[in-house]
Recover the amino acids of this structure.
């Protein structure tokens, strides 16, 4: 697979009529040479700006951020601007963080969205950080945030199907909230397996259903109003997928129902959120009548 050719083709996405204004807006911010005093990589990723700089460019910064709705992952704070994302992504990150050590490792985040988790991972001093996500919008959100943080994170507008052909293998791969979007989950897990160094680890979360049988839910049309959800497995079925993909062990890290304090509608998205996806009379089921979203977090070893 010629990744360089794919990269060149996807660079053209930045000229799409809905993306080009975002790129031009970020370029304007870069041209101001942002004066950053400090940044903090906590629950909210915060950038402290020089006061005179912020006084001069706060409108430009705010307008740029608002061009990029919806903001799914976060939150972020750039100077006095607070981007209250749909997901309070620190809940998931803080749940997972005790289960990995990235010091000196080559790390990938597949389906990285705007890079929130990647920015958080900087604190663990990985050797390399690479994000994969075939979304021009999320790429521009990352570029906006990184214009202030100026990290060496590499963002690739590539998908899960490309990672096994990447220039090198990874010690740790994160794949959070992606697998249920794939019509061939075992094929996707095989691709992730082949992308790891021997002894490498995959940290993954996906929707699940309760039960001990080796089965999965296959929504007829939508699940929780999401059209591209293909398979929602039991834990045993998910383990079987991983073993069929080649992984030698699977550890269950956590099982967690998605709560309204973690995913909710804010002014920074222009669509519905979890509260709209659940049955108004019974929050334990979706509007389609399926079990409400619950996630399983695993670590699988190559």
């Amino acid at each position: 697979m010629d990744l360089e050719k794919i990269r060149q083709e996807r660079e053209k996405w930045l000229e799409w009529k809905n993306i080009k204004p975002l790129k031009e807006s970020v370029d304007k911010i870069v041209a101001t040479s942002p004066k950053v005093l400090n940044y903090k990589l906590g629950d909210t990723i915060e950038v402290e700006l020089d006061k005179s700089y912020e006084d001069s460019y706060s409108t430009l910064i705010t307008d740029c951020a608002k061009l990029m709705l919806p903001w799914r992952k976060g939150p972020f704070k750039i100077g006095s601007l607070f981007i209250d994302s749909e997901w309070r992504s620190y809940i998931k990150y803080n749940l997972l963080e005790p289960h990995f050590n990235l010091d000196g490792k080559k790390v990938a985040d597949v389906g990285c969205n705007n890079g929130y988790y990647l920015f958080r991972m900087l604190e663990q001093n990985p050797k390399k950080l690479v994000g994969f996500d075939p979304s021009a919008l999320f790429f521009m959100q990352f570029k906006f945030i990184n214009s202030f943080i100026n990290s060496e994170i590499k963002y690739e507008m590539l998908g899960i199907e490309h990672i096994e052909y990447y220039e090198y293998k990874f010690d740790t791969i994160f794949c959070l909230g992606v697998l249920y979007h794939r019509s061939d989950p075992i094929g996707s897990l095989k691709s992730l397996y082949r992308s790891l160094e021997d002894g490498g680890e995959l940290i993954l979360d996906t929707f699940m259903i309760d039960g001990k049988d080796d089965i999965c839910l296959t929504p007829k049309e939508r699940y929780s109003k999401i059209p591209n959800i293909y398979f929602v497995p039991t834990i045993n079925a998910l383990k079987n997928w991983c073993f069929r993909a080649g992984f030698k062990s699977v550890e269950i890290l956590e099982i967690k129902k998605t709560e309204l304090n973690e995913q909710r509608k804010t002014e920074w998205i222009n669509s519905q959120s979890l509260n709209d996806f659940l049955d108004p009379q019974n929050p334990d089921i979706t509007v389609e009548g399926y079990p409400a979203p619950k996630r399983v977090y695993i670590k699988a070893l190559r």
Observations:
- DSSP finds nine helices and 15 strands in the chain.
